[in-house]
Amino acid sequence: MRKGFTLVEIMIVVAIIALLAAIAIPNLLSARRTANTAAAKSTLRSISTSAETYSITNSGLYPATTVQLGQYMTSIGSYCAGAGGQTTTLQGYLYRCTMASTGYTFVAAPQTVGTTGDTTYTATTGGVLTPL
After folding, report:
1. Is residue 63 domain-resident?
2. Is residue 16 in some structural domain?
3. b/e for 62-78, b at 16 or more Cβ within 10 A?
4. Global pTM?
């Protein structure tokens, strides 16, 4: 008598694996989307806090360039390619930084709504973080 698996047994195993994958993949995508959103909010808070710290130590003037802001946040270049509304993409979110000596606006928008994130967030002068 031969030992081994029959075609029916192998097909049952494949069906069970497919069912488990169908259950797990949406949960993993949801967890990734949630993590991207949390990272975007945290990043905006960090950048905003750095801008406010700069303002406190520079007589109420805000940083007008990423170089000035970089004194207070070493990874700012990763998130803001420069002033004037340029964008950078990290962890599924597009970051846009607009800075002037009178204030700032930092925006984090999902690269693909529903896939990489659900909500666009904005941090404005005064450290106010709001969802759009």
Report:
1. yes
2. yes
3. bbebbebbbebbeebee
4. 0.78
Tens digit of each residue's pLDDT (9 = 90 or more) over 92-122: 899 988 889 999 999 999 998 888 888 999 9
CB atoms within 10 A of CB 35: 13
* 38 belongs to a structural domain: yes
DSSP 8-state symbol, 17: H
Residue 30 resides in a domain: yes
Question: What is the Cα–Cα distance from 55 to 126, expressed in whole angstroms?
Answer: 10
Number of structural domains (the chain) is 1
Q: Supply the range of the domain harboring residue 87.
A: 7-131
Contacts of 89 (CB under 8 A, 6+ apart): 95, 111
Backbone angles phi, psi at 52, to 5 degrees: -65, -40
